[in-house]
Amino acid sequence: MTGEEKRRGRLGRGGNNGRGRGVSALATLARLRGRVVVNGLRGVRRESVLKVLVVAVAGGAFWVGVLLASFEGFRFIDDYLGGAELLAETLLSMFFLLLAVMLLFSNAIISYGSLFRSEEAELLLTWPVEPQTVFLYKLLESVSFSSWAFVVLGFPLMLGYGLSASAPWYYPAMILAYFAPFMVLAACVGGVVALGVAAYLPGWAKRVLGLSAVACVVVALSLLAWIHGAVRASGGVFTEMWLPRTLGRMSFSRSVFLPSFWVTRGLMEGARGELGEAVYYLLVLSSNAALGVLVCWGLGQRLLRVGWSRSRSKAGGRRRSGESRWVLARWMPAMRLLVSKDWRLFVRDPVQWSQCAILFGLMGFYVLNLRTFSYHLSLPMWRDLTALLNLAATSLVLATVTTRFVFPLPSLEARRFWFLGPAPVDRGTILWAKFAFSLAAALVVTLPLVVASGHMLRLPAAAIVHHGAAIVLVCFGVSGLSVGLGAVFPNRREQNPSKIVAGFGGTLNLLLSIAFVVVEVGLTALPYGLRLMQADGGGVKLGWFLLASGVVAGVAGLVPMRVGLRALRRLEF
Question: Do 410 and 431 form a contact (C-beta atoms < 8 A)?
């Protein structure tokens, strides 16, 4: 047997046992991916020490903050609220259920892109590798890209619960043991969805994913309205019947048929030292994850090549000419055309705008129901606090969205720089067009939310204007950070935006954006705190604090843009 025949045998054609061949090939591909990851980690040593320290310190601070908040929150529930165990179980069940839905959609989107839109999958399907092996390999890749945030958020949350419940010493290992099959099960379901869409709805892939996301928004809003009905029926928040009615409306999350409940129940039993019950739920979760892997193995063998072929051979629909609409385009500035191009690409991809619709749709539903909770009848101090918290929530969501969707834009543009580079367009115009697109889109969504929040809380006109100016400055700062750092840390090897964001530059951008939002919201809240400390409530000028916020936003937005412009002008194509 020649060396080439041996290599082909190891990758899936040699031997007698088909499943054994597939496992061997999967192990080979997994080792290859592991080597790529190790080489990437080694490349961190070539990065600036300051960059690594900033990311490490900010990430550690976030992790410790979640841990302390979880510990204090569960201890408060245990000390001051009745039915602490039922309340904690309901909250954790809802938390894991929502995360399961998010992981499902994330894995479906990433799996579809990595299976049917990547050059690596196309190359692997021409090799002597069985299709089910390629499918499982891409599912493994999807888990690594989609679930790291789940681990970063969920581990300190459950560790804080374990500390509040005086869990045994092995509880951290138990948390990781539960998370692994939970992530695998979500990846299997998402991968099956992506495979089914490609095989049976090849021309409707983006529409199906977009409509599914919109359906999730509708279901989530209906759920909130249903829970809100319990609040109204009990006479308001924190009344005697509020907690029992609300828990009753959320009892569906504790269904024994949901994997999220298995995780919740098993980790709660493990925190109390009930090792037998904890192992039982872990085995239930692991067996279902193993079943999901077997289902993916069988469906991958039957449908992967069919789905790949149909996704590539679908007939293109009739394109409407935009000549009449853009007949004056030759007289328009280049930036306007570039912004229009980015806008069209965004609108034509339901996978992107549906995620934004989910996040900001939930925020809008909450803002429109503020008066239901009677916050506008509270003392001025509580109204100001609620408005500031709404401003902070909107700003943090915006920071997440710009990191997810705006940061990858310079990298995606860099892949096409062989075309844009020789064009009679200044490179600075290309980058400023990204900034203008991000700023305009952010203002259209966030400014009405903040103004509506102030109106629903019946804040004074000056306070509404102050909060509106603050969100404008936040939009300016996070847009500059995302576009500028996206040009500083381009990734021309990836076509998937979610993978670009998962790199070092995306992580740094998210951390700096969150830090900027914290500073801006703090400067916005400072004058209200000073007024409370003064006897007459006056003497505090909002203008000076707004000026300070403007300086911070200018530095946060313009400095990264300047550095990004310098990096873009040095870019070779």
Answer: yes
Backbone φ, ψ for residue 521 (5° rounding): -65, -35
Lowest mean per-residue pLDDT among 237-246, 418-427, 432-441, 556-565 = 237-246
Residues 148-177 pLDDT 10s? 778 888 899 999 999 988 899 999 999 999
CB atoms within 10 A of CB 422: 9
The count of other CB atoms within 10 Å of the CB of residue 542 is: 16
pLDDT > 90: percent of the chain: 17
Domain extents for the chain? 62-199+254-312, 332-569
Nearest one of 236, 290, 12 to 124, comparing CA atoms: 12
Q: What does the alpha-carbon distance between residue 115 and residue 117 come to, in Å, rounded to a whole number? A: 6
Q: Tokens 């609040």 identify what position?
A: 231
Q: Determine how many CB atoms are found less than 10 A away from the CB of residue 295.
A: 14
SS3 content of the chain, % helix, strand, coil (to 5): 80, 0, 20
Q: State if pTM tops 0.85.
A: no
Burial class (CB in 10 A: 0-12, 13-18, 19+), 128: middle
Q: What is the mean pLDDT of residues 228-252?
A: 59
Contact 381, 532 (CB under 8 A): yes
pLDDT band at 359 (very low <50, low <70, confident <90, very high): low
**What DSSP string runs through 271-326?**
HTT-HHHHHHHHHHHHHHHHHHHHHHHHHHHHHHHHHHHHHHHPPPPPPPP-TTTT
Alpha carbon 368 to chain centroid distance?
A: 24
The residue among 531, 536, 557 whose CA lies nearest residue 462 is: 531
Distance, in Å, from the CA atom of 526 to the CA atom of 539, rounded to the nearest integer, reads: 13
> Rounded CA gap, 459 and 331, in Å?
45
Maximum CA extent, the chain: 93
Q: Is 460 left (phi over 0), alpha (psi -120 to 50) or beta?
A: beta
| pLDDT for residue 348 | 63
User: In this structure, which amino acid lies at residue 268?
Assistant: M
Helix or strand run (H / E) with residue 446: helix 427-456
